[in-house]
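Assess the record.
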Amino acid sequence: MKEHKIPASITLAQGLLESGAGMSTLARKSNNHFGIKCGSNWNGRTVRHDDDARNECFRAYRNPRDSYEDHSAFLKRGARYAFLFKLKITDYKGWARGLKKAGYATDPSYANRLITIIEDYDLYKYDRKGGWSSSKSEPTVLNPHQVYIANGIAYIVARDGDTFKSLAKEFDIRWKKLVKYNDLQRDYTLMSGDIIYLKEKKKRASKPYTVYIVKDGDSMHTISQKFAIRLKNLYKMNRKDGDYIPEVGDRLRLR
């Protein structure tokens, strides 16, 4: 948000809507969360997918972060979207309606759908982070974390030096809640690459994730984090107690 001057709520809502909360074929197989097609200037990886026409060319990314970065750059490069960058960073309604006006989507209800997602998930709160808040007392976050979505829940990827308290300050959440949301202990030391959810996870995974085959290095906790499922519910669904240690090849229910 800070680098591209696009409301974080808009980016998150578009990602949720375009990718079906990360469940679309493009998102799952190619990390393309916004349905961006190849275009004449794309030199990266590609994938073929049926859309308006059969076997169309879409961009493929190494990870979701690259997809989010490219989407922001896509909007910033587009001349037809230039007027949007004159809006306040907190004006998500103006951005939603402006995207529809600029022809980003043909769906006549596109703007209203974005606004509904933003308000249902309180995504507008993220527009006030990273130094964009009008509050003089709120600290400026010089290098804010990118926010992603899994199973409809916002999360970030921890970096070296992160603590529960530093993340709590950045996202205006009590640090003890972050610990609880992520099924961790208060004395746990965050490590680079840890998935940290900003809201409580769900009781089950979203479709089509119904069964998971355990891989080397998996634990019940890492699986619960991967699919944004509460740890206690993962145990309960599979009729396992706290002493259970998953083994490679085990089949675990996710919903």
